[in-house]
Design brief:
Mean pLDDT: 77
Order of helices and strands: EEEHH
Distance between the termini: 29 Å
Structural class: alpha+beta
Strand content: 15-25%
Length: about 80
């Protein structure tokens, strides 16, 4: 699995407004990216992981997992 696939990416927006905001909780502390459509924003989030790796930045361990929260709630 590519490094970008290990992180959850969330995109919220409106096709009508043509403005979408994306974030990756493991990589951004209060930071986001934005674009005019979902695909563009998802690509920017994936590219951010690759860009950090190219610069030699140590990526944090993925910690946000929706299924983990569901499993904890059902225990």
């Amino acid at each position: 699995m590519k490094a970008a696939g290990r992180y959850h990416h969330f995109v919220h927006g409106s096709e009508e407004d043509q403005f979408h905001i994306g974030y990756c909780p493991d990589l951004y502390v209060g930071g986001v990216c934005h674009g005019t459509n979902d695909e563009q924003v998802y690509a920017e989030l994936r590219d951010e992981v690759a860009h950090r790796q190219e610069r030699g930045v140590t990526l944090p361990a993925p910690s946000v997992r929706v299924t983990r929260d569901v499993e904890l709630a059902s225990a």
